[in-house]
Amino acid sequence: MTRAWVPLVGLAIVGVLALAALLAPSLPLGSPTDISKDLALRGPTAAEPFGRDDLGRSVLSRVIHAYRISLGVAVTAALLAVLIGGPLGLVAGYAEGLPDQLIMRPLDVLMAFPAVLLAIALMSVFGTGAVLLASALAVVYTPVMARVVRAAVLATKVEVYVDGARALGATVPRLVLTHILPNAATPMLVQTSVLMAIGILIEAALSFLGVGVRPPTPSLGLMLADGRGFMLQAPWMVIFPGLAVMLAVLGFNMLADGLRDWLDPHQGAGR
Fold first, then answer.
1. What residues make up the domain containing 176?
2. Counted domains in the chain
3. Residue 169, number of CB atoms within 10 A of its CB
4. What is the pLDDT of residues 241-257, one digit of tens each?
5. E strand residue ranges, 140-182
């Protein structure tokens, strides 16, 4: 039986976080970059439920504003991977032969590198910032998306209904757009949600290492890096950014899991 509540909960989590990120400048949170040394390391209160960091900045305000960076980078990178890797995988899967080799072998070379190390290498060469980080993640994600789409196309194009449409004289564009692409969209949607979750983690990791978003821009990874020196004195500086990363990843993973069950009845029936 399909667990209908899973994608709904995941969608609710992602929706609330996205809405909070979009409305962050208009919410009564205060500035995420204003320094108040007299409030440094002040613990959680009713007015500041997440407490203050070592520079007296509101941790709650910084977490909400950091979601603008994390979600923006993750969503942009995943969508770029769909726009680039999707057509490449579609052509490789349908054409096979030489076009398949020409497209997939260079992408396989990229897949040979660990995702975080490849992203670090790209950021080291081209610089830091949210836009460059999203572009670097898109390069990392494109081979993954292309391989997922290629596998779906290879499995779909041998189906009976595709052979029937081909026998009735359907052109290649019609076959691809009407019969193959809609059925290949299911794994692509699921993989997109998974890549968004991974993007949250990679963005936080790269910012934590100092090769992602630069201060004073709020970033969950930067907040974790700043708070590691105050874990005993002010544990809220690490706890709340860590929970924020966990919540975002959980939301996208639940959304991907639910989409897989909903869009693939055979997968859901096996649960």
1. 5-25+57-266
2. 1
3. 7
4. 999 999 999 999 988 88
5. none
Note the pLDDT tens digit of each residue in 149-193: 999 888 888 788 777 877 887 777 888 888 788 888 888 888 998
- Alpha carbon distances (Å) from 57 to 5, 60, 212, 240, 244: 37, 9, 21, 14, 17
Handedness of CA 12, 15, 19, 21 (dihedral sign): positive
Provide CB contacts within 8 A for 206, sequence distance 6+.
116, 119, 120, 123, 133, 212, 221
111 in any annotated domain: yes
Under the banding of pLDDT at 50, 70 and 90, the label for residue 266 is low
Quick one: angle between helices 5-23 and 59-95, nearest 10?
Answer: 120
Element (H, E) at 39: none
Does residue 49 form part of some domain? Answer: no
Q: At what angle do helices 130-156 and 115-126 cross, to 10 degrees?
A: 140
211 contacts: CB under 8 Å, gap ≥ 6: 120, 123, 124, 128
Check if the beta carbon of residue 133 is closer than 8 Å to that of residue 203: yes
Per the domain annotation, does 137 fall within a domain?
yes
Rounded to an integer, what distance in angstroms lies between the CA atom of residue 115 and that of residue 139? Answer: 10
Q: How far apart are CA 169 and CA 261, in angstroms?
A: 34
The model's confidence at residue 8, banded by pLDDT at 50, 70 and 90, is confident
Q: What is the CATH number of the domain that holds 85?
A: 1.10.3720.10
- The answer to whether the CB of 214 falls within 8 A of the CB of 123 is no
pLDDT, mean of residues 98-119: 87
β partners of residue 52? 58
